[in-house]
């Protein structure tokens, strides 16, 4: 079975005891964490975290119900995060090649 190109997972955005920063975790993708100085920064960074983590899975994890995740985390912002895996991975490879090329200067 082929993994989908576009995925959506619930994410927990939590700024508790974090000096104003937001930590982003994904209940369905263990050990995947991102962050942002603001909620907007954290939401912008979240798709990259998913795109880096999911290729390690032969079969992508099934997303949890966002309402259940919100109920379990009443003091945090819970939101769905979507990412086009094919496009994001292509983007990230270009960025890596470009950065590596620049550093050989």
UniProtKB/TrEMBL annotation:
Taxonomic superkingdom: Bacteria
Domain HicB-like antitoxin of toxin-antitoxin system: 9-92
InterPro entries: HicB-like, TTHA1013/TTHA0281-like
SUPFAM superfamilies: TTHA1013/TTHA0281-like (SSF143100)
Matching Gene3D superfamilies: 3.30.160.250
Entries under Pfam families matching the protein: HicB_lk_antitox
Protein name per Swiss-Prot or TrEMBL: Toxin-antitoxin system, antitoxin component, HicB domain protein
Organism: Lentilactobacillus kisonensis DSM 19906 = JCM 15041
């Amino acid at each position: 079975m082929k993994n989908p190109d576009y995925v959506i997972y619930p994410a927990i955005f939590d700024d508790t005891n974090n000096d104003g920063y937001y930590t982003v975790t994904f209940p369905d993708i263990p050990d995947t964490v991102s962050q942002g100085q603001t909620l907007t920064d954290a939401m912008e960074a979240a798709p990259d975290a998913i795109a880096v983590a999911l290729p390690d899975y032969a079969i992508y994890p099934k997303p949890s119900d966002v309402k259940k995740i919100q109920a379990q985390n009443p003091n945090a912002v819970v939101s769905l995060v979507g990412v086009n895996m094919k496009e994001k991975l292509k983007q990230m490879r270009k960025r890596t090649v470009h950065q590596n090329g620049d550093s050989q200067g």
